[in-house]
Specification:
The complex is a heterodimer. By secondary structure, chain A is of the alpha/beta class. Chain A has helices at about 40-50, 70, 90-100, 105-120, 135-145, 165-180, 190-195, 215-220, 260-270, 285-300; strands spanning about 5-15, 15-25, 30-35, 55-60, 75-80, 150-155, 185, 200-205, 210-215, 225-230, 240-250, 250-255, 275-280. Chain A has ten helices and 13 strands. In chain B, about 65% of the residues lie in helices and about 5% in strands. The chains are: A alpha/beta, B mainly alpha. The interface of A and B includes residues 54, 100 and 101 of A.
Amino acid sequence: MSIIETVNISKRFGDVQAVENLSFEVQPGEIFGLLGPNGAGKTTSIRMILDIFKPDKGEIRVLGGPMTDEKKNRIGYLPEERGLYQEIPLERCLIFLAALKGMEEGLASSKLKDYMEHFDLYQYRDKKVKELSKGMQQKAQLITTLVHDPELIIIDEPFTSLDPVNTEMVKDMLQSKRDEGKAIIMSTHQMNQVEELCDRILLIDHGHRVLYGTLQEIQKDFASQDIMVTPLSSLPDAIEGVREIRKTNGRFRLVLDEMAKPNLILKNLINSGVELTEFENAVPPLNEIFIKFVKELEGEEDD
Amino acid sequence: MKKTWIVLKTEFINTVTRRSFLLTLILVPLVPAIILGVVSLIGSDSQSGGIGQIFQPSPGGPVTDGYVDLAGVIEQLPPDINPDSLNEYQNEEAAKEAVMSDQLRGYYKIHTDFLETGQITYYRKDFNPFSAMETTTAVERVIRYNLLGANLQQYEALSDPVQVNTIDLAPDVEERDTSNPLAFYLPYGVSMLFYVIIITSASLLMSSIAKEKENRVMEILMSSVKPIQLFTGKIFALGLVGLLQMVLWMGSGLLMLRLGGTTLNIPPSLQLPAGLLPWGIAFFITGYLVYATIMAGIGAFVPNLKEASQATFYVIAPILIPLMLVGVIIEQPNATLPTILSLIPFTAPTTIMTRMAVSPVPLWQLLVSIALLILTILLLIRSVAGMFRAQTLLTGSKFSLGLFIKTLFSAERT
């Protein structure tokens, strides 16, 4: 059963068509990347999933059906625009937000203690939120998102303001949540994080679905004939079937002739006495795919 | 329902544990208590001496005046004038000498043509307009007595020609002693108190919502509670805060006056009517709901606290009208204008409370006023609930009265 299923949802604000006929599914046990340039309709889509906005048309099924008050308690949400009550102590703020997710106060207190200790915030629990650093507030927000053990986690730019140590910690946490069978929708512009974490992605632009599928499928679709190799010794100046050799970050990209096959190139390299530690199809980075796609769409619009 | 309760509880605790709130809660009844105590002590001690004497003139100087009657008007002093307080002198030189040697405070010269011109001159050593007023009254009475041929009956009739006893036929009426300064200030105090409590509570609601928008907590809240749950929880929480304030402030006011009856010598006629507290609670709740609903609408409408504060003026304006007209209301509490103001929902709470502190308000007016307030509340809640939708709460526009009213009456549900 899908955790989320949207069928041709649309939403318009005045003259702006924020989302149009958007359909996708999110499965349990996956990290789903929701990608798109600024203003593409990502946040509107998320708000429709959360029942903050009602779609003008189309259908949304969350956790097996339409949204209910009870289902809201099974969802954790970290919005792009972060916010906490600034004037009250951290612990009181977190308990309130956990209580709004249906947690009993006692359970919330004990689970919050664990999370605060994990995120090095426990000693600041009595401090007013406004006295905490941006990074600490970001961690507090992540706690709010996760403390009630939601089945569906929706996070928008989760790594903003985090140092590398905390970034790693959050990544580990998201991966362990995925392993527990939770569904995670992650919206971010950090393509390296998407490549590292996401199982499937949806790229939207101007409210439309542009790309949708597993990361491997999409990268494969965009893969060229090129080969990436890492030799232990130097490469020969010319290799049969290779049109061009480019060095990138200690690796070499071999641009093949039109009719050349990778197997033939591998055979030629071995015959030339080159020792290899790596030989693989050159997969385009997601960042490249993203830029290429968005630019192409912009070009089409200009025409 | 449970989430509404969580919002209510948290909002209440967050507000009442704020240091500024606690300070206001204590200081507001404390300051008038001190003033009241001082005023009452002055009033009660004027006869018996004590603190009141601090404010009385020092007894060191002469208290006797003299007069030189060149017109031959004064033959004898009336019985209510102490003969030692007014001495006759045959000529000005003797009188002047007595003033300069501090035997006299001053002397009156009744000019020879007094009967034609009415002219009297008062001579004294130093300038003090207030003591002059006091003594002039005494000499006027002496001359009036003599012009009436020393006829005591006529003199008394002229001094206090009409005595009207007013008896109010309404039940529970107590005659008020308007000579006590408290009788004058009490309705002002009640009026001001009511205004402050309603506006404070309603403003707290507005700033709470505006802050949630400004702090960007709103989106997290929206993913957990329905806007209407948020609105209901907050409006009840801050209503309770206001009610707590009112019961504490009014209760301490009543207590002060009751204690005052025995220790501060406040006459019983000055005490607040017993019906003031229950009706006060009823008018607070309805008045608060009217203003809080509008304030909540503003909080939902604008993007931040600054913008919200600027919009407050438009809301406060109607409740200020009874405050500006408080003198008129106190003077004639049952006249047409106070009655009209008592029936307009936006001015009713403060007007009614001010009137009740002065004299009883007819029951039908209280009931009609409450009914109209409830009707207004229902209409306002319906409109503002429409504004409490995600689209408005997650955005916000610069405040303009026209746009606000338009949004209020055309708020569609998303």
